[in-house]
Amino acid sequence: MVIKDEAKKILAVSLVSGGMDSLVTAAIAKSENYDLALLHLNYGQKTEKKELECFHKIADFYGVPPKLRKIIDVTFLQQIGGSSLTDEKMEVTAFKGESEEIPSSYVPFRNTHLIAMAVSWAEVLGAKKIFIGAVFEDSSGYPDCRPSYYQAYNKLIKEGTKEGDISIITPVIHLKKEEIVLKAMELKAPLQLTWSCYAREDKACGVCDSCALRLRGFQKAGIEDPISYHQRPKYFS
């Protein structure tokens, strides 16, 4: 009897904010037999401390060693301002329903900076894939979540890196939030370790854009969100 060797694992960089979408993205990469190098960016966001705590808990869950965890300070985004996530003078607004207006929580050109850091680290590590939890459902508010943005960015990486063979993977980009919740359940990803709230670090507010989309996803999936909320409005019934 011939016993097949286990497929060789390849290292991939996965950006993990501490939120649900990035968790599921990392879980998908893991399920596809990649070894994980996890990258987290502190950019002066109001929930920075909580997000970093969740990042380490997720890294612990997947057994990612310290040498493959990278935390980078990019607080120049806070200095630039222009977002309610980073500017203390701007209020994180409540969810107002579907809209094509760019919300105040948009951090100008943020993903471009974050991915650039991931590409640099990938070159050092020899990783060829960068996983990011961008979701097209968010793209009406966040232009750097559009599929066309990632297609353009992959062209830039090809032109601007030593070997030109690194690419961005966006495995949840076409999924709805409820589908992301169900994917997490399928992969046994630890949703209880994640944080999506833009406004609070003790209990999730339940009313900011991120909380509302997350709660609606859980409600559509018929599953109870395991994290604590200050309030849990019904966004779907």
Fold blueprint:
Elements: E1 10-15, H1 20-31, E2 34-42, H2 48-61, E3 69-73, H3 76-80, H4 110-125, E4 129-131, H5 147-160, E5 167-169, H6 177-187, H7 209-221
Parallel strand pairs: 1-2, 1-4, 2-3, 4-5
Task: Write up what this structure looks like.
- This protein has 237 residues and is of the alpha/beta class.
- The chain has one domain: Rossmann fold.
- The protein contains 7 helices and 5 strands, in the order E-H-E-H-E-H-H-E-H-E-H-H.
- Strands 3-2-1-4-5 form a 5-stranded parallel sheet, with helices on both faces.
- Helix 1 links the parallel strand 1 and strand 2.
- Helix 1 packs across helix 6 and helix 6 crosses helix 7.
- The longest helix has 16 residues.
- It starts with 9 loop residues before the first strand and ends in a 16-residue tail after the last helix.
- 43% of the residues are buried.
- The N terminus is likely disordered.
What key phrases describe this protein's structure?
237 residues, alpha/beta, Rossmann fold, five-stranded parallel beta sheet, disordered N terminus
Please list the strands of the largest sheet in the order they lie side by side: 3-2-1-4-5
Task: Kindly name the structural category.
Answer: alpha/beta
Q: State the helical fraction.
A: 25-40%
Strand content: 5-15%
Total beta-strand segments? 5
What is the name of the CATH architecture? 3-Layer(aba) Sandwich
Q: Give me the number of helical elements.
A: 7
**Cα shape:** globular
CATH C-level category = Alpha Beta
What's the name of the CATH homologous superfamily? HUPs
The radius of gyration computed from the alpha-carbon positions, rounded to a whole number of angstroms, is 18 Å
Query: Tell me about the biggest sheet?
Result: 5 strands, parallel
